[in-house]
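Quiz preparation item.
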């Protein structure tokens, strides 16, 4: 903002509010003017367009507490429409010094005028005294105010074995990313042409009239700040092109089927200094013929005979990537009972291990010898077991 903008324009008058207006009143006044004079509502109306721009400029200053404070202090100090004119003869025809000299007299050592120290004044408003060459200042401000755009996130999938999901592995992930188009170098314009500044947002990429504290992308340029008249034939004017790449990704131990892993900063590159997006990898885990997963616990079904389940026994149980363990099955163990073997599961992030959950499955023989059948019949007579279906029918 040049010194002329700060000192000559009465932003309160532009919005039609009092100098002590609250932030809500300033916001309300701006919205009313924006609705009545928005370029989309009045195409080709230069007067409405100018009114909209003036209101947007006033709102930008008065809606920001720090900018408003500087603006108020500057106009109070320099009396509104003050001009920094070079004195022609030291003193004016009335015998008084020029306004510029008067200012310095008030703040020099020993000066009698009230107010803050001169160094504070110049330090706070040093930007008001810079020389702004025609066009260069506004272009610089547009570039500085153009919002940074975060890069897009990239999705990828990878298939791993059950063993890799338990132990962890480094695998190659094939990705399709949105990188700058190599033909137009990301401008989106045809070779030999250049994009033009968006007339709606003046190159800021932010929709005029956005609520305080919110940066809504410009609807005309979609937040880029630029418009392309002759689009690049390769990317169609988007400035982005699909590219394939392969990245080695570390899959941590204990990952489960369908889990989505986030790798920060490995997505598409940002624009205007924005951060890169993230890479999200969805993991598909293959089946194991023996073991299953339940969180960080491994599961396994162990078959036992009817005699072992009734009389009790000690059986060998397989362990993933380890030696079998001996498990004691107590007498009268029902089918489906689960036992826990501590520390034989999947390693967790805290270096501790889950457990191995062993489920007993009572098997039924396919054939019996005549002697075994006779013994089983004798058992049935001696056991005198109650009907196991009595409760079923009672509850039914």
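Solution:
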């Amino acid at each position: 903002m040049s010194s002329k903008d700060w000192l000559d324009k009465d932003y309160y008058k532009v919005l039609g509010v009092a100098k002590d207006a609250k932030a809500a009143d300033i916001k309300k006044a701006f919205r009313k003017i924006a609705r009545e004079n928005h370029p989309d509502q009045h195409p080709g109306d230069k007067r409405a367009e100018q009114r909209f721009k003036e209101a947007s400029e006033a709102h930008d200053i008065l809606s920001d507490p720090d900018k408003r404070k500087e603006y108020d202090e500057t106009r109070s100090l320099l009396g509104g429409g003050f001009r920094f004119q070079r004195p022609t003869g030291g003193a004016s025809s009335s015998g008084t010094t020029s306004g510029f000299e008067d200012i310095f007299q008030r703040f020099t050592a020993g000066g009698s005028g009230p107010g803050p120290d001169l160094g504070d004044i110049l330090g706070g408003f040093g930007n008001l005294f810079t020389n702004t060459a025609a066009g260069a200042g506004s272009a610089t401000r547009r570039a500085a105010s153009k919002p940074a755009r975060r890069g897009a996130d990239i999705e990828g999938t990878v298939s791993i074995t059950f063993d890799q999901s338990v132990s962890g592995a480094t695998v190659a992930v094939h990705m399709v990313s949105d990188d700058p188009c190599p033909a137009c170098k990301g401008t989106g314009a045809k070779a030999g042409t250049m994009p033009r500044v968006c007339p709606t947002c003046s190159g800021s990429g932010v929709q005029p009239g956005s609520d305080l504290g919110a940066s809504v992308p410009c609807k005309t340029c979609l937040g880029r700040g630029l418009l392309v008249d002759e689009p690049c034939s390769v990317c169609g004017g988007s400035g982005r092109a699909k590219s394939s790449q392969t990245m080695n990704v570390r899959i941590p131990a204990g990952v489960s089927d369908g889990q989505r892993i986030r790798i920060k900063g490995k997505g598409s590159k940002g624009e205007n200094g924005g951060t890169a997006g993230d890479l999200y990898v969805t993991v598909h885990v293959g089946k194991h013929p023996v073991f299953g997963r339940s969180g960080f616990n491994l599961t396994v079904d162990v078959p036992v005979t009817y005699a072992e389940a009734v009389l009790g026994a000690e059986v060998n149980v397989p362990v993933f990537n380890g030696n079998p363990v001996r498990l004691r099955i107590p007498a009268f163990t029902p089918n489906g009972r689960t036992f826990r073997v501590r520390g034989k599961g999947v390693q967790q992030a805290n270096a501790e291990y889950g457990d191995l959950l062993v489920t007993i499955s009572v098997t039924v023989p396919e054939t019996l010898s005549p002697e075994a059948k006779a013994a089983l019949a004798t058992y049935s007579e001696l056991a005198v077991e109650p009907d196991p279906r009595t409760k079923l029918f009672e509850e039914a």
